[in-house]
Amino acid sequence: MRRTRTIVILILALSSGGLAAYATLRLLRERTAPLITEQAPSSTQVVVAARELAIGELLSDADVKLVNWPGNTVPTGYARSIADVVGRGIMTRVALNEPLLDSKLADRGQGGLTITIPEGMRAMGLRVDEVIGVAGFITPQTRFDVLLTVEDSQNSGATDRSVTKVVLQNIQALAAGTRIERDPEGKPLNTTVLTVLVTPEDAEKLALAQSKGRIQLALRNMIDVRDVRTDGARLSELLTGLNATTRRTTPARTGAPAATTPQSSAATVEVIKGGTRALIRF
């Protein structure tokens, strides 16, 4: 009797436990709201360059694309619609996938190099070769000085009147391109044309320098904007300075060398005896 009662209690306990486990599992499966809600990161879209864009280009649909910008805060000036940038000109070089800023774009309908010229400034072209153009290192946005070599008509008495002087400083390059010209024999010749940004006064100086002498460009550090005063260089001064630094002066030898007096190897001893002083040589 007691054994039967124990078995019945055990069966009831197992049944109760199974029902409780089943009810709990079913309750967990039927819950619609998760315990932890994961929020998807918010984002917005900005316009970026689909390729490298040069100064003066007019944007088309193929030149730009939309990408997701993480977060809801987009920096001020970033374009957020393709329609806002198509048809506008590029004022500053834009790299691939670089966001388009409103400050880098001209007003709609304006394009070409003229949009990059600030008010009061002028764009002027220079025909340069590899030497004058610093072996191609002068590219848009770089800065340089202009050196002029001419014959000094005021120094008529000198045998060599050539002088080189820095005539313009801190000039900015706007664009650099290559065009094909013909040499005296009619053969095609590639010529580099550099477009620079100058004031009207500097434009006059640059035009005169090109017509009266040979110009040379000297590349500057982008952050070095200080003007430097120079006196110019002359060939005679260069040679004089070279001779002064390389000439070595030596004392002249006149007559026979002076005879040297042989030093005596004898020793002298002073002897004082009874108030009498005597020198003894050995």
Q: Structural class given helices, strands, pairing?
A: alpha+beta
- Secondary structure: number of strands: 10
Mean pLDDT: 77
Report the biggest beta sheet as strand number plus sense, adding barrel if it closes: 6 strands, antiparallel
**First-residue to last-residue Cα separation:** 150 Å
Spatial shape: flat
Given as residue ranges, the uncertain stretches (5+ residues, pLDDT < 50) are: none
Radius of gyration: 45 Å
The percent range for helix content is: 10-25%
Oligomeric grouping of the chains: single chain
Q: Please report which band the strand proportion falls in: under 5%, 5-15%, 15-25%, 25-35%, 35-45% or over 45%.
A: 25-35%
The number of helical elements comes to: 3
Order of secondary-structure elements: HEEEEEEHEEHEE
Keywords:
3 helices; about 280 residues; flat; alpha+beta; six-stranded antiparallel β-sheet
Written account of the structure:
This protein is 19% helix and 29% strand. It is built from three helices and ten strands; from the N terminus they run αββββββαββαββ. It has helices spanning 2-30, 200-212, 235-246; strands at 43-49, 64-70, 122-128, 143-151, 162-182, 188-198, 214-219, 233-234, 268-273, 276-281. The strands form three sheets. Strands 3, 4, 5, 6, 7 and 8 form a six-stranded antiparallel sheet that branches. It has a two-stranded antiparallel ribbon with strand order 1-2. A two-stranded antiparallel ribbon has the order 9-10. The protein is flat, with a radius of gyration of 45 Å.
